[in-house]
Structure formats: C-alpha cells, structure tokens
Specification:
alpha+beta, 3-stranded antiparallel β-sheet
C-alpha cells in the first residue's frame, strides 16, 4: 500500500483542516510521522468525509494505514491468537 514509507513511526491526532479561503473547516483524524502529515491519507479522508463516510470507518482506515506503516506492532485479540504464539 504505502511502499516507500514502511516502518515509519506515526501517531493519530484529531486535526481541524481548512481546505481553502472559504473558511470551511473539517475535523478529522490525521496521521503524523517524523516527516510530517501524510497528505495523501488526509486528502483521502477529506474525500471520505465529503461522501458521508462515518467517523468509525475513517478511524478504521487510519488504523489500517498505521499497521501498514509499522506492521510489527500488530496486536491480535486473544480469540485469534495461536496457543503456540510466544506473545500470549
């Protein structure tokens, strides 16, 4: 998915985004990395908001992108964990 930016630390924050000089504001989750905000993700979230996508779906999208950025941090719920998994 995000091939050139794997294993990058990121944090989800709630941001107020002003798209242009009309003053229209949107509050939505944004992913920040050491290099700054991931604008392609923010643009997609703005498109999702414009199309009436729920906040929970946007948060799920952020979670998926975050896992793609650092896949070593995947935490499986206990019902999916294998008994041979050393993390459980």
């Amino acid at each position: 998915m995000c091939m050139g930016i794997q294993n990058m630390s990121s944090v989800k924050v709630k941001a107020t985004v002003v798209e242009d000089n009309t003053g229209i504001k949107s509050q939505l989750p944004v992913l920040l990395t050491e290099q700054g905000e991931l604008s392609v993700v923010t643009d997609y979230l703005l498109d999702m908001e414009a199309n009436g996508v729920s906040a929970s779906v946007m948060n799920q999208f952020i979670q998926v992108v975050s896992v793609e950025l650092h896949p070593e941090v995947i935490h499986y719920p206990p019902r999916f964990a294998s008994k041979t998994d050393p993390h459980f």
